[in-house]
Amino acid sequence: MDQYERHLRTLSIATLTLVSSALLLACHGSSSQPSNSSKGAGTCADPVVLSGAHTFDSESTSKSTDMISGEDTSCVGYKTHGSDRVYKITVPSQDKTKLSITVTPIQTPGPAAYDPVVYVTENCSAQPTCSAGSDNRGGGSAEAVQYVNATGKDKDVYVVVDGYDYQKSGGDYKLVAEFVTP
């Protein structure tokens, strides 16, 4: 075998290795997380940490419990005792920059569809103080909330996706977190 044939054989092996690696990733997915998030357990003690804007296409509270009791009715007008999932994000101190969170259930709207509640709190505990919250729509409809950091310095806040009281089992949703500057 001459040098040209050896070079071709080496290139063929390298190409096959790359193709098989790509197929494995396509079939089984990558084990690494996106660079702008870390998948925590979704609890106050271990929140899903977001570094900047992010979209999660398939999140769920169905395997969660009611860790945050939601006894404070001033946030959305009533107690929230559904299963919840917690995210942590740093909101920049830039003037007028809003953290915008949208939670959209994956199910078709209807009385039995997941009815999310979303709120922002500066402390994550069993009895948090709500900074902003939303539960304006029924099952299967999106909820959105905005939060402005007026402290003059970057601030960590917690975004809690909770559920309407009668849905203790939770549900599946898409979460979009973005920073909006008017």
Question: What does this molecule look like?
Answer:
The strands form 2 sheets. This protein has a 6-stranded mixed β-sheet with strand order 1-2-4-9-6-7, with no helix packed on it. Strands 3-10-5-8 form a 4-stranded antiparallel β-sheet, with no helix packed on it. It has one helix at residues 3-28, and strands spanning 37-38, 48-50, 54-60, 85-91, 98-105, 116-121, 130-134, 143-148, 155-163, 172-180. It has 2 domains: 1-32; 37-180, Jelly Rolls, CATH 2.60.120.380. Mean pLDDT is 75; it is low at 3-37. The chain has 182 residues and is an alpha+beta fold. It is globular and about 40 Å long.
Keywords:
182 residues, alpha+beta, Jelly Rolls, 2 domains, six-stranded mixed sheet, four-stranded antiparallel sheet, 10 strands, disordered N terminus
Percent of sequence in beta strands: 25-35%
Q: Which runs of at least 5 residues are low in confidence (pLDDT < 50)?
A: 3-37
DSSP summary: helix tally: 1
Tally of discrete structural domains: 2
Helix content: 10-25%
Secondary-structure content class? alpha+beta
Identify the CATH class of the largest domain.
Mainly Beta
Following the backbone from N to C, one meets helices and strands in this order, namely: HEEEEEEEEEE
Work out the number of β strands.
Answer: 10
Strand order of the largest sheet: 1-2-4-9-6-7
CATH architecture descriptor name of the largest domain: Sandwich
How is the main sheet built?
6 strands, mixed
Radius of gyration, CA atoms, in whole angstroms = 22 Å
* Mean pLDDT over the residues: 75
